[in-house]
Amino acid sequence: MKAARRRYATLLLPGLLCSSLVAQVQEERAIGLVSRVILDVTRRTPTVDWVKAQRGDILDSGHIVRTGERSLAVLKLKDNSLLRLREKSQLTLTGTTVNDAFQKGVSVDGGVVGFAIQRQRAGEEFRFTTPTSVASIRGTDGLFARFDSADVFTILTGLGRITNLNSLSAADVPAGFTAISRQDGHLEVRVATEDEKNAAARASEMKERERQLRLELKNPRGETRQLIIDLYDE
Questions:
Q1: Is the pLDDT of residue 65 over 80?
Q2: Architecture of domain 31-207
Q3: How far is residue 90's CA from residue 110's CA, in Å, rounded to a whole number?
Q4: How many CB atoms lie within 10 A of CB 27?
């Protein structure tokens, strides 16, 4: 019996080491993970079709995340930067290493993404990309949105830069400003309106204010039980 146990342990150990090595490699290659999921959030990889996203799911380059109606997802990157996908939004994560500098970003396929990007190391930056624009960030908070005719880029703190890919027009976007990059090549940078700043603040706020709805319910025997429903203000 002891010999059988030793043989079993000998067979099991390489398997555990292999699994641990695979997990370590996946973690090193990962761009980030799913930090929070509210309602209808799904993800897709180059090898796996759409599945329901779960908190803690590892995200790598080429992975896609999307949100449904009245849904929300918060993604946490390896450098502790945060992305907040509003409802009916979709993005694809990208990441490459160039000269030991990790360049990461997201391709926004549609919708609104709030961001809180940590200050990047020398030679690194974070980018939002669409068929119309490229917006680069070194460390700042704000909002990036893709609509049918234009991209909208609002900066709350720090500094960003946006380039219209159709006209190659480029401009810095300081704190308190909004850039509008249109498909016809026009690029406008102006002081953000109060509505735009409020929208960016709501989109980039990473901690939902939790409320609870408490209901007293009685069963047919007259017994009272309390039902607690967690609500989230957006």
A1: yes
A2: Sandwich (2.60)
A3: 6
A4: 11
